[in-house]
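Why predict the complex rather than its parts? Because the way molecules touch one another can change local conformation, and only a joint prediction can capture that. The input here totals 724 residues.
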Amino acid sequence: MSILDVKNLHVAVDGTEILEGVDLTVNPGEVHAVMGPNGSGKSTLAQALAGHPSYTVTEGSVTYDGKDLLEMSPEERAREGIFLAFQYPVEVPGVANAYFLKAALNAIRAHRGEEELDGFEFLALLKKKLKTVDMEDSFMNRPVNEGFSGGEKKRNEILQMAVLEPKLAILDETDSGLDIDSLRIVAGGVEKLRSPDRAMILVTHYQRLLNYVTPDFVHVLMDGRIVRSGGPELAHELEAKGYDWIKQEIA
Amino acid sequence: MKQATISRKAAPEKDAYLAAIAELQAEDQGRSPAWLARIRNSAAERFQRVGFPTTHDEDWKYTNVAPIVRTQFETALEPPARAPSADEVDRLAACGAGAARLVFVDGHYLADLSLVPAGLRPVVSLARAIVDRADEVEAHLARYVSPSESAFAALNTALIQDGAFVFIPRGVIVDEPIELLFLSSSMERPTASHPRALIVLETGSAATVVETYASLGGEPHFTNAVVEIVLGEGASLTHRRILEESERTFHIGTIEVHESRDSVYTSLNVAAGPELARNGLNVRLTGPGASCSLNGLTVSRSSQHVDNHTLIDHATPHGTSRQLYKGVLDDTSRTVFNGKILVRPGAQATDAQQSNRNLLLSSQATLDTKPQLEILADDVRCTHGATVGQLDEDMVFYLKSRGLGDDASRAILTYAFASEVVESVGEVSVRSHVERLIARALSTSLPNGHALTLTLSQRERGQVGVAEPWTDQ
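Output of the joint prediction:
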């Protein structure tokens, strides 16, 4: 059974329709790349799947793990195993990173009927996960994302993903704005989290993340629709020819 | 006899207070030293002369004290018959048990419940200091409160009997906080108390004083406090003022701080309790290089009203002042921030910053924020700013997208907004007391407890080898 089944999804922001009928099926263990030019609706797809209240679904259906995703609140989606790595991670002054992560993990564990972790257990786990993204322990006592560099913010998203262990991770342009070292760390983190029971959707504008993480499928989103799907070779073709090539083909 | 001149007819709302003043004078029978009688009498005359402030007075424009004025509060001239238990006192105090602590009920010192280490002997009740240390008290008492202060301050001075006297001699550094715990009794008849404190730090000395106001019950009470603080050259005072009285309490506080050259005054004012609270805090930088840093936090709900008036009087060059006042407003509550910065002629190289930030949790809440800058020197750096807003919905979504519920997300963000002003509080017991107070006032229950840092014991820290700094408790 697929983990995610998106059918004819239409999404509007402030009354303007951005997605105009997206179809996408993702199975456990698969890594899908969703590529497309700026303004094509990539981030809208990511935000809508996470349940951002500004994104209104006007038509279509989304089935996640056999359930109607669109009926679920953002927190329910997270507790059921969906994780969105934000394109622009939000700064949360006054809330320490470790506090936030522990509260989030325990909310998810409680939902699954698992025991909450105490401070000791959580920190032992966190210490392990910090290595995944090459982050200093001291990051954990700083307010969430506040004063973080662009690369640190993205690494922090990957760290959260590593701790929360989602079933479906959606990475919204996690590769953009990264220097090459951060990109390697982020890509390495993603690769380590790849597993047969975890699906990933990599939303990206560029091919460069895909040099480190080879997707199983590549989709091209344009003007609110997926206009082409293929294997990893499609990403290379896009890199070589640009998006205009597809635009002309579908025109 | 002075009381013979007091007329009861002019202003009926003053009757009960004038009666208290007359009773105090009659009972005193000349036992008080002449200088103290003079101070009281002149304040009594002033109280009689000036009316209670009204919203027509610029300084009281946003705060209507009519509910105080029209209630016939009876001044507690004696301590209540029943003293609180030691457990009750421990529970209400902000500093941990064992800390230096002067305990007052309705402004009267309770020696049995107080604790002053031998090394801190000049920390005594004002009544005792008036006898034992008359010269020091006379040199300072009632000399700083401005003659133009409201009738409330005059009333307090006219009724001086007791209070707190904190005297830190030249060069003495006191590391542990000294708590002044002012409790209000819960009497059937509405009761007024007039707490008084005189805090004197001599040249080069340093101390931390925590003023805590709490209620022993829920009956109507009027607390009319006056605090005078005198800092000698290079002296450093950290001052916490925590108002957590019951919701049927009115609190008027007048705080006057007199700073000498190179002295440092650091304060935190927290108001989370009284139905009406007004803090009038005047800081006068009277010597070059003096500095002050004022933090404030109000948490208001239901129909509470909190008014913070600050005046920073830069009278000499190279003074620095910092102010950060924050408010969290819910329901139909109302808060006022009026921050005046006065830079007098000649106060060159003054550096003054003021910020007032507010979070509105309800569309019915009202906020009045008013910076007042009066700059009469030309080489000055002066900034001020005020913000008011609601919770950032992007932050709320971010937290929810990680699995936290809507209520928990909002509680965490609200608490984080409020607790920023507490971060700089170095006294662990006080900080944790204030954090609990904030959480209670916001009636939030946060995941992982009240501190938004992760709490670890020393043992856990050692075992997992986590780098500093983790908050320890």
